[in-house]
Design brief:
By secondary structure, this protein is mostly helical. It contains 3 helices and no strands. The chain is 43% helix and 0% strand.
């Protein structure tokens, strides 16, 4: 079964995730992030209601290799000749 972004649980703001709940959340989030290259940490953040930093921390705890930032790091017209 492929993990899907829309299947991730929404966690109320301020609720602490510990023990089995944290393990389950970490497994779900890491499965979605690893199985779909189009899903970003920001996408997961929006669906679950958790912060970007928390999602990133959970992925690191799970041993997931984070992808590089998408998009360009330069603003249009910023190149010098």
């Amino acid at each position: 079964m492929t993990a899907k972004l829309e299947d991730l649980p929404r966690v109320p703001r301020g609720k602490r995730l510990m023990g089995k709940d944290r393990e389950s959340f970490r497994e779900s989030v890491s499965n979605v992030y690893e199985s779909d290259p189009d899903v970003s940490i920001r996408d997961i953040k929006d669906v679950t209601g958790r912060s970007f930093g928390f999602i990133r921390k959970i992925l690191i705890e799970a041993g997931v290799e984070l992808r590089s930032r998408g998009g360009s790091n330069r603003k249009p017209g910023a190149m010098r000749s």
